[in-house]
Amino acid sequence: DIVMTQSPDSLAVSLGERATISCKSSLSVLSSSNNKNYLAWYQQKPGQPPKLLISWASTREFGVPGRFSGSGSGTDFTLTISSLQAEDVALYYCQQYYTTPWFFGQGTRLEIK
Amino acid sequence: QVHLQESGPRLVKPSGTLSLTCAVSGGSITSDNWWSWVRQSPAKGLEWIGEISHGGSTNYNPSLKNRVTISIDKSKNQFSLKLTSMTAADTAVYYCANFSGTFNSWGQGTLVTVSS
Fold this sequence. Notes:
The complex is a heterodimer.
Chain A: E1 4-7, E2 10-13, E3 19-25, E4 39-44, E5 51-55, E6 59-60, E7 68-73, E8 76-81, E9 90-96, E10 103-104, E11 108-112
Parallel strand pairs in A: 2-11
Antiparallel strand pairs in A: 1-3, 3-8, 4-5, 4-9, 5-6, 7-8, 9-10, 9-11
Chain B: E1 3-7, E2 11-12, E3 18-25, E4 34-41, E5 45-53, E6 58-60, E7 68-73, E8 78-83, E9 92-99, E10 103-106, E11 110-114
Parallel strand pairs in B: 2-11
Antiparallel strand pairs in B: 1-3, 3-8, 4-5, 4-9, 5-6, 7-8, 9-10, 9-11
C-alpha cells in the first residue's frame, strides 16, 4: 500500500499570506514510463464533498484559481496557496492514484489567522 | 460533469447490511470511467471503499474486501454498494464518485449511522 501523510494537521495563515501544505507518500508515485506523478489535491468545505483542485501533482483543474499550485515529485509534494483568501478556508487532502488501494492523506485544516 | 446522488437508509443496525445506490445523471454510466464509493469519518478520514467499471470489473479496498459488493445497473444508470456486518466503526458519510485516476465528480454524501 502507498500511504499518504500530510503536514501540518492544521495551519493558520493571515489573509494575503502564503499557505503551504506538505504531503509525503510511503513509496514513489512517479511513473518511469511516462514521467508523471500520480498525485492529486482536493479541497473540502464544510458540508460539501471534496473538490478536485490539482492532478498529476501540478496540473490545476479548469476553474481553479491561479493562486493554487502544486509541486514535488516522487514521494514529496507541496500544495501552495500564494495569497490566502477567505474562501480558501477548508480541509485539504492529497491522494495517490499510482496503485490501488487509493489512499488519501489525513487532511490539513486551513484557517485564517 | 456528471451529477451523482446517493440514496438509501441512513440508519443501520449492528451486524446489519448497508445498501446504498448512486444515481448518475448528465452522462452515461457506460462511459469509460470507474464508479467508486468513498467514505469519511472523523476516525479514518477519507477511505476508498471500492470501484466498478462500466464493464462490471471491480476493485475493493483489502481492508473491507470480505464485506463489500459493488454492482452496476446500466439500464437504470446507477451503481450500488452493499456492506455487510456493519459495526459502529462503519458510521460515516458515504460518497459515490466518478473516478478516472482522480475522483472528478462526487455526490453530496449521505450520513449512515450504525446503531440499534
